[in-house]
Give the backbone structure.
Amino acid sequence: MIVTNTEQVAIYLMLGTMITLFAMFERPHNVYTLCQQTLIRLRSVYENSPNLGPNQSFFLTDTAMLEMIGSLIHGAVPSLKIRPPEDPYYVDRYLGLSTSLLPIPFQICGLNWTVSSAGHEEGDFNRIPVFLTQHGNPVSHLTSSSIDLHPICPTSRIMNLVA
């Protein structure tokens, strides 16, 4: 199936999530591959549709998070870089307040791949600046003004500790 528009993204995510949930019980070692293939198929539509976010296509965040966990274990770069939601008060039904932090695990997986021997003959720390130049700063969207959320939001407390 070739995904060509945003309506097909929602259908494909639903299908991919159903297959992944079945695989979790029957073949858990296939979950990473299923999530990766699902996100690869919809990557071009997602990257070319700036309005397509987690609110318009649910199951995107959980599929991406499962793939990021697998990418970290396998030493690979995730196939899709999730954009943070435009609304700083957005709360995802599956990931809660951590949706705005999704670009950070993407960077961690990419840096893991950069310094590991999984993608190269040997790990090389000199590749880190190249990776960061290609994929951007993982916390550039988390400025002090964008994380001034509700006082009980743990994200703002965490980012104040990091800054």
